[in-house]
Design brief:
This protein has about 280 residues and is an alpha/beta fold. Helices cover about 20% and strands about 20% of the residues. The protein is built from 5 helices and 15 strands. The protein has a 7-stranded mixed beta sheet, with helices on one face. β10 (about 155) and β11 form a beta hairpin. The two termini are about 35 Å apart.
Amino acid sequence: MQRRSGREADRRRKAILAAPSAIKSGNDLLIIGHDEILFEDKYKDLPSYCKARPGEKITHVDGNDLSGHFAALIHAPFKDDQAKDKNNTSLALNVLLQEESKYGQFFFFGDREYPTIKRIFEATEATKGSSNDNTGWLMWDAMLCAHHCSKAVMYWREEADTDEIYKPDIMKFFETYSRNGDGYIISSSHSAFWDEKGKNPPHKKAKDRYCEISKPGRFICTHEYPSKSEPSPIVFTIDKDGFGFDDKRKKSCGPTGLEAAVATARGGAQPPAVHIGFGTPS
């Protein structure tokens, strides 16, 4: 899969270099990070709009400027992530979708684990009150569980520890930045949650912790929504009434569609102010 993705990225690179001012749909490419490969002959001549660094905001999709409707702040990878294992080089971003004054925010951490997710929150909070204040980009209405609901997000073994220890600080971050305290937590996984040693995620320990900071019915597993027998896409909407979720589950399994729409329809006066800066090299 990685080899196939690499071939596709290389095809797009060649297409862009052949006609940098006329990129066709399907040929767009955005390289995110600080990797020195960008200075090699194959990549150094790519236009600047094909490159982005943590702390920068993206408003273009497939060559179209969607400012006022779409924006994404890149939280990671950090410059020194290249030395870490592949999970902790994952792209982490906060996506804002907007309709006039109404908006919703969505948080994605890829396959990151406790140390690097914690770093995202701490590094961003450190910008508070500065001209590069990005703390508004920590808020979320829907959050995708990192690494398919892995317990490595909130259970971690430090060098001095003999076993994994629960890290409540990361759950406090998640809870604090849930916009209005009623966000949806989504597990992109099968529906068999377990804790047996050596088992890959999804982990029941992680699910239980997420359920502690979310309201009933707002932890949703993709493979059992609205039911295990007939799974369907989970669809959130942003319209004149604000952020909404038309819940297809039966009433006994979660909020009804009407209840969810009323409970989640909201409209902050403005989406977070955008400042560029954190995460760039010193």
